[in-house]
Automatic annotation (TrEMBL):
Organism classification: Bacteria, Bacillati, Bacillota, Bacilli, Bacillales
InterPro entries noted in UniProt: AAA+_ATPase, ABC_transp_ATP-bind, ABC_transporter-like_ATP-bd, ABC_transporter-like_CS, Oligopep_ABC_C, P-loop_NTPase
Family as reported in the entry's similarity comment: Belongs to the ABC transporter superfamily.
Organism: Paenibacillus dendrobii
CDD domains (alphabetical): ABC_NikE_OppD_transporters
ABC transporter domain residues: 7-251
UniProtKB keywords: ATP-binding, Nucleotide-binding, Transport
One GO MF term: ATP binding
Pfam families reported in the protein's UniProt record: ABC_tran, oligo_HPY
UniProt record, GO biological process: peptide transport; transmembrane transport
The protein's name: ATP-binding cassette domain-containing protein
Length: 295
């Protein structure tokens, strides 16, 4: 992993208006992801993880803050300026059932992002290229003309991954890419993501509920609570030496993986103590590379 910063998120805020109320889904989040690194983002449901991911790829405009990608501030870019970055930044979502158009075969599904980003090849070249990608994600050339309903959840996620990789991205936001899969295939898909990362020099943001999986794949991890990061550290350091009370609560409730419930069963009884004036503490570095927001 290099020291070069690929993604630099500075005081990111995304607030949603809900009637007369404002929901602060993300409220002042800062972190950096190095080139080639996997940065894990954990936290209970509703803590703002996906919203962070969506802001990075500008599916959402944000309320405040900046996102730098490979040294470029994308925050004020319009559609035209963003276009090359929308190729370089790809996403893999949780649900491989709804994210693939049922009316397209595998060759068309994987070719679609290539068309969008103007990666043109002759028909037979493209077929060979896509067949090569299929092999890399553990599928076969004979799958080229099949449709999503003919595949298992794990295979569909492999197709989604091939789709994302077809445009040669640098950075992939993996938003709970294995949560909807059977436990038996989760590890396979994670191992494959790691192999692909090494082969293509990818940088990952890996959003997950499953703490054992996120520890395995991540170099560093950020813990989100109510729209804020409460702790950031290298993976092993976070697990061996959690400092924030919320991280401790999260780690002590590592769920037993059950594909039917594991993704949503992490509600944790915990309130961040605020100072007397209600101020929320900022992240500060307490040992090299270990940041915590606590009084
Ligand atoms: N488009 C939207 N409009 C309004 N509110 C939203 C929108 N997207 C997210 N939210 C709200 O923002 C908060 C954070 O949601 P987000 O999806 O980022 O959480 P999450 O950490 O990814 O949760 P989960 O683990 O369940 O996926 C939630 O309260 C959610 O209801
Ligand atoms: Mg989410």
């Amino acid at each position: 992993m290099s020291e070069q910063i690929m993604v630099d998120v500075r005081d990111l805020k995304k607030h949603f208006k809900k009637g007369s109320e404002v929901l602060k889904a993300v409220d002042g989040v800062s972190f950096q992801i190095r080139k080639g690194e996997t940065f894990g983002l954990v936290g209970e449901s509703g803590s703002g993880k996906s919203t962070v991911g969506r802001c990075l790829i500008r599916l959402y405009d944000y309320t405040g803050g900046e996102v730098y990608f490979d040294g470029q501030n994308l925050s004020n870019f319009g559609d035209k300026q963003l276009k090359p970055y929308r190729r370089r930044i790809q996403t893999i979502f949780q649900d491989p059932y709804s994210s693939l158009n049922p009316g397209m075969n595998v060759l068309e599904l994987i070719g679609e992002p290539m068309d969008i980003h103007g990666i043109h090849m002759k028909a037979n070249e493209r077929k060979e290229f896509v067949a090569g990608l299929l092999k890399k994600v553990g599928l076969k050339e004979e799958h080229l003309y099949r449709y999503p309903h003919e595949f298992s959840g794990g295979q569909r996620q492999r197709i989604s991954i091939a789709r994302a990789l077809s445009v040669r991205p640098d950075f992939v936001v993996c938003d709970e890419p294995i949560s909807a899969l059977d436990v038996s295939v989760q590890a396979q898909v994670v191992n494959m993501l790691e192999d692909l990362q090494a082969e293509f020099g990818l940088t990952y943001l890996f959003i997950a509920h499953d703490l054992s999986m996120v520890r395995h794949i991540s170099d560093r991890i950020g813990v989100m609570y109510k729209g804020r990061l409460v702790e950031v550290a290298e993976s092993d350091e976070l697990y061996d030496n959690p400092l924030h009370p919320y991280t401790k609560a999260l780690l002590s409730s590592i769920p037993i993986p059950d594909p039917r419930t594991a993704s949503q069963n992490m509600a944790i009884k915990y309130e961040v103590p605020t100072a007397g004036d209600g101020a929320v503490p900022e992240l500060r570095e307490v040992s090299p590379g270990h940041f915590v927001a606590d009084h």
